[in-house]
Amino acid sequence: YLLDKSDKYDSRDVERLQQDDKWVENYLIWRHSIVDDTLKMIDESFQWRKEYTVNDLTESVLPKWLFEHGALFLHGYDKEGYKLFWFRVKHHIKDAKHQLEKKKLVAFWLEYYAKRDHGKPLTVIFDMAETGISHIDLDFVRFIVNCFTDYYPNFLTKIVIFEMPWIMNAAFKIVKGWLGPEAVSMLKFTNKNDIQDYVSAEYLPPYMGGTDSFKYSYPPLVDDDFQTPLCENGPITSEDEPESKEEIDADTKETGELNEEQNLNQKKMNSIEQISKSEETEKTEIKPKNAKKALTTFKGPLLHISPAEELYFGSKETGEKKCLIVLTNVTKNIVAFKVRTTAPEKYRVKPSNSSCEPGTSLDIIVSLHGGFAASLQDRFLIMAAEMDQSSGAGVPELTQFWKEVPRTKVMEHRLRCHVIESSKPSSLTLKDNAFNIPAKTNEDLHIQVIVYSFVLYRLQEQIDRCLWFQQLSVVLSLLSVTVVAFCFYL
Predict the structure, then answer these.
(1) Order of all β-strands in the sheet with 353-356
(2) TM spans, by residue (predicted)?
């Protein structure tokens, strides 16, 4: 069916469809596994992708003023860890002359994110604060809605509408008609009092009741809120600053519990005096205790990264504070890398700005500072680029390299955090220990069974003497057996 219309599609989309099972699965999920509906959606979305030249949309082919305007951008995460796609309605004015360019800007952002974060869904925020009649553009709103309902399958989690003016109520009744019943359930009308039900204060601007000091500007593109890396000025996630006494003690304890081979390797590394103290700390860092080998690997063109998608931290109760990232250089050149995070106040990353030799693997340890807990909104960005063999890989060389390397030659991969909650006690356990009553041992239960049996035997002996209670005797006999069996079961 699709091959018959292949001339109407971009060949890159057809090739991707044949190779990307996840993409096909998303179409099926969005159309409830109904094959005919799925094929129809693929047909329509592929024709649309070719019409809008989606695969070729870049910053250079769109007018710069569109980006500078700040009506559309990606920034922050909702409480479920989904990326926020902002539409600042007050910055949009209906303009038929530039409508196609504005629609291509929407397609640019959606495709940019879909390719970069492997199709992870988005949450859309229609920020309608300070808007009026001049900002009403139903054609543009319908286009955004259609992108999620018809062109990008399984890509929408919810639409959060902030402070919709009463004058737009009639307009949004029309929008609901476009969405269909399932998508309508994704609409969340909010104001300053309840928007934090969906987005925490750290990703909301002050006028929404939040604490986010982010101010949109261009260039560059908003870069996922990752903080300035080690080799640049500003706050950093992963500067290898001296550790606190508690962290040093904890690391020393873990070191003592490692096997003999690791200790010998550590001593051997410490004997190399030519390496600076800071580099020594990075290169001889020992894996966290009980670190599990990741079962998934992202296979990039420069580095294979394990785990592929998520770092598993424990909650405050479980106390698991460290994770391991393994980088493997699959090129024939030295690969420089650096790590960023959206929460620099929480994490220490070692090493955070270094290089990996050809064909070798390198361990990166991500640890939480004391008193902090990981959250689903936290993200890590690993950036990598090939270096010339003759350029050197010291700190000065790396600093200069990251200033000069073109963005198009930088591989990027993102990891999100997953929090492992502590197991909750069962209701039976809570009842048994609610008043600090010690749990019964097997010996206690055995004695209790003997006592119950003896009491029931004596009672039955007395009843047997009375003819009037012959039948009752039989009942009590059965009851005795039942109680004994129940007690042994306990």
Answers:
(1) 310-314, 411-420, 379-387, 334-341, 353-356
(2) 468-489
CA distance linking residue 203 with residue 375, whole number of Å? 13
* Cα–Cα distance measured from residue 109 to residue 138, given in angstroms and rounded to the nearest whole number: 20
Beta bridge partners of 74: 85
Q: Cα 136 from chain centroid?
A: 34
Say which residue the tokens 């993409």 belong to.
23
Helix, strand and coil in the chain, % to nearest 5: 45, 20, 35
Mapped onto helix, strand or coil, the DSSP state of residue 51 is helix
Q: Which amino acid is at 222?
A: V
Question: What is the four-CA torsion angle of 188, 190, 193, 194, rounded to 10 degrees?
Answer: 10
Residue type, 471: Q
| 298-418 placed in CATH 2.60.40.10 | yes
CA atoms within 13 A on the CB side of 431: 3
**pLDDT reported for residue 472:** 55
Beta-carbon contacts of 118 under 8 Å, excluding residues fewer than 6 positions away, are: 22, 309
pLDDT at residue 171 in the model: 72
157 contacts 129 by C-beta, under 8 angstroms? no
Sign of the Cα pseudo-torsion (467, 471, 477, 479, in order) = negative
Name the CATH code of domain 57-208 (choices 3.40.525.10, 3.40.50.620, 3.20.20.450, 3.90.190.20).
3.40.525.10
Q: Which residue has the tokens 């908003």?
A: 222
In angstroms, rounded to a whole number, what is the distance separating the alpha carbons of residues 3 and 39? 11
Length of the chain: 490
What 3-state class would DSSP assign to 310?
strand
Question: Which tokens sit at 449?
Answer: 């069974």
